[in-house]
Design goal:
Layout: E1 4-7, E2 12-15, E3 23-27, E4 33-38, H1 45-59, E5 66-71, E6 77-82, E7 90-93, H2 94-101, H3 121-129, H4 149-163, E8 174-178, E9 181-184
Parallel strand pairs: 1-5
Antiparallel strand pairs: 2-3, 3-4, 4-6, 5-6, 7-8, 8-9
Helix pairs in contact: 2-3
């Protein structure tokens, strides 16, 4: 059985603009920057996110760790997770990385996640070949022999297939920036799975 954390919406510091779900950033009692993401449609995205997280852990796939949560007063279910960009200078999403490779890439189109013809296997592979695999913090459990970002990303895609995740669009993968270096970010946002 998993612990379910209670989140006070009064602690919200900022609304997360990316995506379509109700979510916001807050600091937990230890001062860690956390995201609360609600399952406001009642589709089970909260438990799907948690189960996908636990399956990724079993496989050694670098991933953001999710915990079950609900919002105080509204009792809205959801999940919480720490920002994967903590300690880095930021997170560059796939659409931004693809735009830096191809200036015609439609990265800035509002709510254009699906059916982007330029979001191809070859384009993603070119971006991944130019960045490093995830930092050591995320690769402790990873199977041996995965030496590149492309190797690791192939594991993300296999995880997606296993859990029936239909949401690996160009804003659901990215790279962590540290100075001028780019590292593949851990896998995140599996709420559309299972």
């Amino acid at each position: 059985m998993y612990q379910v954390f209670t989140i006070d919406p009064g602690t919200a510091e900022s609304v997360e603009q990316l995506g379509t779900k109700y979510k916001y950033w807050f600091k937990d009692p230890q001062g860690t920057h956390q995201l609360f993401k609600a399952d406001s449609r009642g589709t089970g995205e909260d438990w799907a996110e948690k189960i996908a997280c636990e399956l990724a852990e079993l496989l050694g796939v670098p991933h953001v760790h999710y915990e079950l949560a609900f919002e105080l007063n509204s009792e809205r279910p959801g999940v919480i997770c720490e920002s994967c960009a903590t300690g880095y200078t930021g997170l560059a999403l796939g659409n931004q990385l693809l735009l830096s490779r191809d200036q015609a890439y439609p990265a800035g189109e509002s709510n254009k996640y699906y059916r982007v013809r330029q979001h191809t296997v070859d384009a993603v592979a070119q971006v991944l070949n130019a960045i490093a695999r995830p930092p050591d913090k995320w690769t402790r459990n990873m199977p041996s022999g995965l030496s590149s970002a492309l190797d690791v990303f192939a594991g993300y895609v296999l995880l997606d297939a296993w859990i029936a995740n239909q949401d690996r669009h160009h804003e659901n993968w990215g790279a962590l920036r540290m100075g001028t270096a780019l590292y593949l970010a851990p896998s995140f946002d599996h709420g559309a799975a299972l």
